Amino acid sequence: MIPAQFDYERPSSLEQACQALASDEDAKVLAGGQSLLPLLRLRLAYPSKLVDVGRIAELKGVHDRGDHVFIGAMATHDEVLRSPVVRDGCPLVALAAAQVADPAIRHRGTFGGSLAHADPAGDLPAVALALEAVFVAASAQGEREIPAAAFFVDYWESALRQGEILTGVKVPKLGAGWGFHYEKFHRTAQAWAIVGVAAAVRRSNGSIAEARIGLTNMGATPVRARATEAALQGVELGDQVRQACEEAAADTSPPADLHAQPDYRRHLARVLTHRAVRTATASP
């Protein structure tokens, strides 16, 4: 199908982009376009204007900010997964970015665009939730920060207000003693996750001192597996870990679609959580 007619602007600064969005309540931001363009072709989105932020230098790059890594919204998935700053400071982000779609999409799609799209089947939202990342948004009224727990509101709906642009994401560095893994079950390499699990685990004296687990495609938004996180605390590495991971699907509302029913997704959540935790505890 052919997209509906729209106006197009390509500002060269963040200030100009904010002004362009503020002037039209039906305008949308165009970053890498890997999520938005298919919606336009299917006429599932009808923006009156596209504001292309591809030229804005302030939105690009990956930066070491001491206690956190700041990832610009326009950094591509490929830039993120190859960045030494990301690999050293927040390796879980690099692990998940490497599993986003395929190389062609990873070279065009952007880190911020994927998160702002707020698809619960996307790989990065669960990672941001598990790492307790903070989203930075700008508008004509100024800048504000949004914690990951408040950013994802519903299917394809984020906490970004009309006229706001996601400028980047602050990802905390968890430091020594933490292990990470992202486990994903999907039909093909390019497909969305049927279920995915982002795990960050801190070990101490042969047991698990703390665990953070984010679930992909187990509800209308990414979900923290709070019951399993609590059950894992203080558990010695071994069979008790598997038992704790049986709680991974508690308080979730997985969707039903052509690829999987809710019961199957709950089963996958338990199995994949155990795999992710086990691998995270074994990682250096």
Automatic annotation (TrEMBL):
Domain FAD-binding PCMH-type, chain residue ranges per copy: 1-176
Origin: domain of life: Bacteria
Keyword entries, A-Z: FAD, Flavoprotein, Oxidoreductase
Entry-linked PANTHER family: XANTHINE DEHYDROGENASE SUBUNIT C-RELATED
Protein name: Xanthine dehydrogenase family protein subunit M
